[in-house]
Design goal:
The complex is a heterodimer of chains A (about 725) and B (about 130).
Chain A (H helix, E strand, L loop, with lengths): L2 H67 L1 H5 L4 H10 L8 E6 L4 E6 L8 H4 L3 H4 L7 E7 L2 E12 L4 E11 L2 H11 L2 E6 L2 E5 L13 H4 L5 E5 L2 E11 L5 E10 L1 H52 L13 H36 L3 E5 L5 E4 L1 H7 L3 H4 L4 H4 L7 H10 L3 E10 L2 E11 L8 E7 L1 H48 L4 H9 L4 H10 L2 H24 L9 E3 L1 H14 L13 E6 L6 E3 L1 H21 L9 E9 L2 E8 L6 H6 L17 H12 L3 E7 L3 E9 L4
Parallel strand pairs in A: 17-19
Antiparallel strand pairs in A: 1-2, 1-5, 3-4, 4-5, 6-7, 6-10, 8-9, 9-10, 11-12, 11-15, 13-14, 14-15, 16-18, 19-20, 20-22, 21-22
Chain B lengths: L6 E5 L3 H13 L3 E5 L2 H10 L4 E4 L8 H11 L4 E6 L8 H6 L6 E3 L6 H15 L5
Parallel strand pairs in B: 1-2, 1-3, 3-4, 4-5
Helix pairs in contact in B: 2-3
Amino acid sequence: MKIRTKFFLSFFLIAGLSAFFATFFSIYSTNARYAGTAVRAIETAKKTAENTFSEYLGELIRKATFLAELNEVIANIDRPDELSSSLESKAFFLSNLNTWVLDRNHRMIVTWNNATQSLIDQPSIARLPALVRADEFLRSAWILKMGTGIGIYAFSPIIDAERFERKGALLIELPLDSLFADSIKEKTKTEILIFSGKAPLASTFVDANGSRYFPELRRLTKGQQSQVEVMGATYLFDRFPIRDSEQREIGTLFVGVDIQELIVAKRIGIYSMVLVFLLLVVLGILGSVVVGNRMANPLRVLSEGADRVARGDFDVHVPISRKDEIGNLARVFNHMAASLKGQTEEMSHIRQYLQNIIDSMPSALIGVDAEERITQWNLEAERMIGVKRDRAQGQLLREVFPPLENQLVKIRQAMKERKPLKTERMSLFAQGSQQFLDLMIYPLVSNGLDGAVVRIDNITTRVRIEEMMVQTEKMMSVGGLAAGMAHEINNPLGGIIQGSQNILRRISGELPKNRQVAEECGTDLDKITRYLEKREIVDFLRGIRECGERAAVIVENMLSFSRRSESKMAPVDLAKLLDRSVQLAASDYDLKKRYDFRHIQIQRQFADDFPQVPCVVSEIQQVVLNLLKNAAQAMFEKKRADGDPPRIVLRLYREGDLARIEIEDNGPGMDETTRKRIFEPFFTTKEAGIGTGLGLFVSFFIITNNHRGTLEVESTPGQGTRFLIGIPLVRS
Amino acid sequence: MENAALRVLVVDDERTVRENLKAYLEDEGFLVRAAESGEAALALLDGEAFEVAIVDMRLPGIDGNAFILQAHQRCPALRFLIHTGSSSYSIPQSLHEIGLAETSVFRKPIVDMNRMIEAMLACRVAREVPHER
C-alpha cells in the first residue's frame, strides 16, 4: 500500500474514528441529557403528583372539617334546604367536589355535585372505611375505588360540640376525573392520565373535537417509563399506583411529560452532531489528503528519484527544499546522486580509457579466467580471429579459437606457476595463407584475481621479411661466393678461350708464319688443315672455344651486379631508357633464334612529365632488357589459347615517392610455386642450355641492392605475368 | 697495320695466360717478352726497351699497381694495359695521373682480342706523336 494511502487511511481513520466517537458520545450524552431532563421532569412530576394526592387528601379533610364545623351546617343539620344554600354559598370552596351531608345514620341528606358524576351512591357509603371500621367520630380521608372509578373521600363528622353528639357527617368526594387530572396538571405541568385497571378514568388530553382522549394503555405500560406519541406529540409517561386505604392498588396515575421539544431538540442536536461529524469526516478526508500529500508527495518524488538512480540514471535532482527531515533527506539524496554520477562518469572514463588502451593495441589481447572462459577480447582480437567481442565474451577459449587449443596447457601452466610463457612463431593457416603468430601468455598476478592474458602478435609480415632478408643474404652470399668463384674461374677460362683461339689461329692458313713453320717441318699446312678438318678437330676446337665463351658470359653476368655502382648514379630519363631498351630488344639477336621481338605488340603507357630518376643507366637497362627478353621467350614458347597476339605493356608512373616501371605480358603466366622462386639464382623454367637462371636474380639484386628499390612479380597462369619495378625518386 | 716489332712486355703470374698472350701477340707480329712477377718484369725493363706492358694486377711480389708506378719512373715512355681477373677493378687515382684510363683495362677472360690489339696500337701512335699530346 502506498504511503499516501497509508497516511490518508491513518488520518482518515483517526479523524473519522475520533469524530465518530466524539459524535457518538455527544449524541449519547445529548440523548442521555435529554433523557435525563425528561426523566427528571417526569420524576419531579410524579412526585408532585403524588404529593398532590396527599395534598388533596389533606385539603379535602380540611374542607370537610371546615364544613363540618361550620355552625350553619351544624345548626342546619336537620334542615336540608338551609344546608343546600350553605353549600351553595361555598361553591367556590367546593368547586369540582361532590359533597354530601350525611345524617346520623349515614343517609345522604344533601348532595352538592360540582364534580363529575359521583361514584357514590347510598349503598356504597356503607363501604366507607370509616363506617366499616366504625371510626365515624374521626375525620379521615381515603382514596377509594368506587364502582368503575376512583375517588378521594374525606369524612368529617358533624358534631354538636355542646351536646357532644354526632349529628351527622360531611362527606366530600373528589372523583379522579379529568378535571382532577387537569388540576394535577396545573401543579405538575404535565399531562395526567388516570386508569383504574384497564378502564380510563381521567385524561388531560383533549382531541380536536374537544373530548378527552385516552392513549392505549398497552402503549403506556411498555416499561416503567414509556415514550408514547399522543396526538402528534411525544410524551414520556411514568406512573405510580393509586392505593386505597388498605394499600390495595386500585388504579394507576400516569404522568406524561411533553418531550416533543426535547425530541425535536434532540433530533436537531443529533442532526447537528451528525452534520458536524460529516463535516469532520470531510475535513478529515481533506486534511488527510493534504497532509498525506504533503508527506507522501516528496516521498514519492524521492522514491522515483531513487528508482532512477537504481536503474542507473544518476542525473537526478530532487526539487525538495523543505527544512524538515524530508528536506534533509532530499538534500542528502541529491548530494549522493551527484556524487554517484561523478563517480560513475569517472569510472566510465577510466574504463573507456583502459578499453581504448587495450583496443588500440596492435596486438590481440585475450583475457581468460581460471575456467578458461574469455573475459577480455580486444579490437585486434576481433580483427585477427574474426569473432566479435559479444560472441566471444564468456565462452570457452578453445571453442572460440580452436587453434589455441594446444596452447591451453601453457595457459594453465602459466597460471599455476604465476610466470609468463612464450610461444614463438606458431604457424597457422588462416585468411588463405600461412600466418605466423607470436604468443605471450602471462598470468594475472595482482589484485588476487585469477586468470591469464594471451597477447597474440601476427608476425607473418616480419617473418616474411626475415625470410626475404635471409633469402637476400643467401643471394648476396651466393653473389659473394659467385663473385669470388668467378674471379678464380676467369683465369682458367681465359686459358681455355685464348688457348683454343690460338690453336685455331695457328692451324689456319691465314698466318704466313704457320706455312713457314709447316714447311720447316717438312709438311704441307693445307694437308694438316684438311686432316684436322676431316677428323673434325677444328669443330671440336671451335666447340671448346664456344663453351669457353659461354662460360665467360655466365661468369660475366654473375659478376656484373657486384661491381661498385654508386659513383655512376645519375638522373635518368626513364621514358627514354625504356624506349631504348625496347629498341635493343628488337635488334637483339639470339643465337638460337628463340624469339622474335618484332612480332610482339608493344603498348606504351607512360605518365606525362615524368621526373628524372637517379639510377645507373646501364644497370637499369640491363634489368629492363632482361625482363623484356623473358617476356618474349615465354610468349614464344606457349601460344595463347585464344589466339590473342603476344603483347607487352610497358608502364611508367609515379607512386608516392617511387618511380614505377611495369612490364606486363599476356603470355602463359606462371603458377604460385614458380612465382615464389623466380628470383632465385640458377632457378630457371627454360630448357637446359637456354638461359642461365641468373637474369632475374641479377635484376633483383641490381634493383634492391644497388638502387634500394623493389622488384615484384605478379602472375596468373594462362593470363600473363607482370613485373613491377620501384625505384626511389630521391636517393637516400 | 704497322706491327713492326712493337715491343710488348706481359706480366702475369699464370703460365697459361703468359703463353697464350705471347702466342697470340706474336702471331700478330709483336715482339713479346713475358715476366711472372713485377720484380722480374722490372729486371727485364732494365735490359730492354718496351713500348707497351700488359700487366696483371695480382702478382706474387709487388702487385700490379706498384709495378706500374715503378716501371713508369724508370721508363716514362712505357704505356700500360691492365689485364685483370677482378671484376670490380677500377683505376686508382695514382694510375690516372700516369695516363691510364678505363679503356686501358681488360677483364679476364678476354673473348675479343681485337680491342686489346687496337689499344696497343693506339699506344704506339700516341708515342710517335708526342708533341700532339
